[in-house]
């Protein structure tokens, strides 16, 4: 059996596809300010914190705002985003995600969530996966954004597992780097062209198995 003792999962893009909701809400905000941005630019927002995402979008629109104004805009976007995720159902869990997390647990491997999102708790609740994680570290518990390893190190700490015995599952470059910076193994979820730094890249958790953890 693999020596991996814990699996730490990112949420957006790994367990659920919330990127589309983030995109809709950010697009609505940009449009309200009189500009637009592309889906390609949206790719750059994956794994990036709410405040940092807003700063990038304002930069693309060539708009300057004070910190107070930024706070109000981020809150507005979040209200729209929450309205959408409030409707989420368990059928929005990405293929194979629930099954793979369960197979880890059945094999005695601890599981944690490591996400930048401050809405993680609500999403897990909506999709009925809260009880499948031994630790939940989200945007409310960290002060340093990925690629800083804080979110994953806190997860390993709560699980009482050494970082070298953890594997992180991530769809964002910043997240893959965060895992590496934390001294953990990392499985990229997406394309090898983008996530080449990861120890292994699969297209989704439906492609994962405990067998594939063994060489890590
Ligand atoms: C990450 C997403 O998981 O969470 C980002 O990939 C998002 O797109 C970030 O900006 C913060 O999420 P939230 O829900 O706290 O605004
Ligand atoms: Mg992600």
Brief write-up:
The chain is of the alpha/beta class and 216 residues long.
Notes on the structure:
With 216 residues, the chain is an alpha/beta fold. The chain has a six-stranded parallel sheet. The chain has helices at residues 19-32, 39-43, 50-60, 67-85, 97-106, 120-127, 150-159, 173-181, and strands at residues 6-9, 110-114, 135-137, 166-170, 185-189, 200-202. Helix 8 (173-181) links the parallel strand 4 (166-170) and strand 5 (185-189). It has two domains: 6-16 and 93-213, Rossmann fold (3-Layer(aba) Sandwich); 19-85, Putative phosphatase, domain 2 (DNA polymerase, domain 1). The chain starts with 5 loop residues before the first strand and ends in a 14-residue tail after the last strand. It is built from eight helices and six strands. The structure holds 6-O-phosphono-beta-D-glucopyranose and magnesium ion. Magnesium ion is lined by residues 10, 12-14, 46-47, 171-172, 175.
What's the structural blueprint in terms of helices and strands?
Blueprint: E1 6-9, H1 19-32, H2 39-43, H3 50-60, H4 67-85, H5 97-106, E2 110-114, H6 120-127, E3 135-137, H7 150-159, E4 166-170, H8 173-181, E5 185-189, E6 200-202
Helix pairs in contact: 1-4, 3-4
The structure holds 6-O-phosphono-beta-D-glucopyranose and magnesium ion (MG).
Uncertain segments are none
Largest sheet: 6 strands, parallel
Tally of strands: 6
- Percentage of residues assigned to helices: 25-40%
Q: Note the quaternary state here.
A: single chain
Q: Which structural class best describes the helix and strand composition?
A: alpha/beta
In round numbers, the mean pLDDT is 96
Number of helices: 8
Order of helices and strands: EHHHHHEHEHEHEE
CATH class of the largest domain: Alpha Beta
Distance, first to last CA: 11 Å
The coarse silhouette is globular
Q: Output the strand order for the largest sheet.
A: 3-2-1-4-5-6
Structurally, the number of domains stands at: 2
Q: What is the CATH topology assignment of the largest domain?
A: Rossmann fold
